[in-house]
Amino acid sequence: MEEKRKESKGFDPDMHGSAASTDESQAAWEAYRNDLVAYARLDAAGCAPSDPRAAVPDPLRPGSHRVHHSYIWLGGFSDVGAVALAIALAAAGSFPSLLDEMPPVMALAAAGGIALAAIAALAVLFLAGKWIAWRRLGYELTPAELTVFSGVVNKRRHHVPYGRVQSVNQQAGVLQRIVGICNVKIDTAGGAANEAVVLRYMRTSDAEALRAELFRRKKVLAAGGMLDEFGNAFIGGSVAPSAWMTACAGGNYAAVQRAFGGKQAQEGVRAATAQIGGACQVGGNVLDAADEILADVRGVFGGAEVATGAVSYEAGLTNKELLFAGLSGAAGRFGVIVAGIVGLAVSAAQFFSNNIDFWIESALEGSQAAVDAAGGDAAAALSAAFASLAWQVALWAILSVAALWLFSVVGTAVQYGGFRVRRRENRVEVEHGLLQRTFHGVDVDRVQTLVVKQSFVRRLMGYCELSVGKVDATASDGQEGADQARGMVIHPFVKTSRVPELVEGLLPEFADMPARTAAPAPVALRRAVVRSTILRSFMFWTTLAWGVVVAACELIARADASFADQVPLSLLEMGWAACAAVFVIAFALNAIDAVLWHRESFLGYDDRFMIVVNGGLSSTTSVFPRRKIQFAYLKTNPFQRHAGVAIVNARTASGVGGTTEQLWDLSSADAEAWMDWARPRGRALRCEETPGRAASPEGVSA
Q: For labeling, which of 2, 49, 280, 410 is most exposed (least CB within 10 Å)?
């Protein structure tokens, strides 16, 4: 067979076109095909580097495959690390008891030896367990589905039909990027109960090849074609040989086509694998150079880059956008920063309480000149010392806030280092991360919503965040692939005026956004102000509750004079006054937010799309196709019915459990008109009609 494969390199099927219809030629091609199939089924693990089959990535070869062997040693040592730390701490705890029985050097050696022996034994056990798990972890590409099998005692087998593959994402930490491996998560279109499949520790090149092959097979089946065990595609009489079969034929693509009885003009295959052309626009920043170096190195076992399809549009982050993305990301981590400040403040307070007596004594002893300057008034000198200390604490707090903010900004910038968003064939792909690289992709058909978000700061600057909502999945092991609350962010910080350009390049299917159709009713303004400033205001209810407590305490103090000595009413009143002051500020901001919401919010719809805009100090715009609406409904309470308004609700499959887009307080007429638009557009069947008999025109007998 090896000789026949070599001879096929110089074999030209066109030279035998006139004889292709004869029985002799047909028999020769069938014999060649049988030999080729037999050769393709041989194990290619030990093929020479000069063999064309050696260049075919592992996922494109027939049979079952394992993930990379770093699953054993890198995964095992990562599991051993936490246990080793616990053992080391236990050994350190036993060190004092050993000092009572032997000299310090021997005690240290004994404790260290015991710890090292225990860690070595555990490492052997962990690595053995990882090796057994690795031997039973693998995947296989069959003609109809991807099969993933795992488990030693409890064995699991996942069957993923190609037609249900939604996205093939990958993620790599710092060590994984150095080694050249990544974790691959395969999402399927399964709704809220969908469970993603995760393949850990795959070579980067194998992950890219697997992603390209899964989407290739999905397109072939969607076009009504078929696949064989080698990945050859058969569509409408045309044959598209797989990379493996072509390599087995010595690279003679046409010979494989003729051997499998396919047409050389691959109209059906080309239609199924059509690629989108167009202009490519790329932005860059200072971190892209470092990311390009890491991408070019590809790690120790990363392998050569695998082409995954033609790119029609690509965009990145400019230096300005990267800086603002970092600042906005830091703003998003405000809770973390506050928690850090509180933790530092608690530590400082503990430190102050432990050293306050010493400070006072030192201040009194070292400030005799201050006492003399104050006319012998020690209290004044002590007050001046504490004032100086207060300024030092304030300065320390400011520096702490600035440091935490800076760390958050740098962390966010590194997170978006090497950011790229692109349209590749019929998919939108986003990858970013200078140290921990993350790749997310989604098929355009699976995009549920296009979302434009503007926080208050971004609105002032004229920027926004662009994201898409998709059907998300939970990971099979509960670790990878946690759902993203914001969906898939396709640009973290973009000029609002650039949104139409990005949408046209990345999602031209969503470019025709409908115009304004209906807006909240005039009475909705009053309702929004009351709702924002009173009913949903945390500060209003906090101030009210605090005032009730203060009033109750004052009444009790009037009845019992000793109660005032037990409870510092002045502190309660000062706290209530501060809370009331904050409420006044919040009331003004909430009122402005309600007015802006009423002025800017609206919904629009046409034959294909619906848009919902909820304005205010921050703004959210959601655009989604009409066919993506799973169900629609109106909602009212007694007050809304009295005011003649209703809430419109449109449910899509975005996220793990679905997402409801809504707009409050549309007039009843506008809400009913929208509901008529959202209803299914089928011809209703009247009760006098039957499925097998059409109604007769008026005046004509059946």
A: 49
Taking a C-beta distance cutoff of 8 angstroms, is the pair 413, 406 a contact? no
- Return the DSSP state at 326: H
Cα–Cα separations (whole angstroms), residue 399 to 210, 329, 347, 396: 49, 20, 16, 5
Instruction: Please spell the DSSP secondary structure of 332-399, one letter per residue.
Output: HTHHHHHHHHHHHHHHHHHHHHHHHHHHHHHHHHH-HHHHHHTTS-HHHHHHHHHHHHHHHHHHHHHH
Report how far apart, in Å, the C-alpha atoms of 250 and of each of 9, 238, 244, 470, 670 are. 6, 21, 10, 42, 67
For residues 700 and 354, what is the distance between their CA atoms, to the nearest angstrom? 102
Instruction: State the DSSP code for 655.
Output: B
Residue with tokens 């608690």: 346
- For the stretch 222-281, pLDDT in tens is 989 999 999 999 988 888 899 999 999 888 888 888 888 765 534 444 444 444 344 455
Residue type, 664: W
Do the Cβ atoms of 517 and 605 come closer than 8 Å?
A: yes
Handedness of CA 605, 610, 611, 614 (dihedral sign): positive
Name the phi and psi angles at 559, rounded to 5: -80, -30
List b or e across 393-425, with b for residues whose CB sees 16 or more CB atoms inside 10 angstroms.
Answer: eeeeeeebeeebbeebbeebbbbbbbbbbbbbb
- The helix/strand/coil state of 258 is helix
Q: Is the pLDDT of residue 688 over 90?
A: no
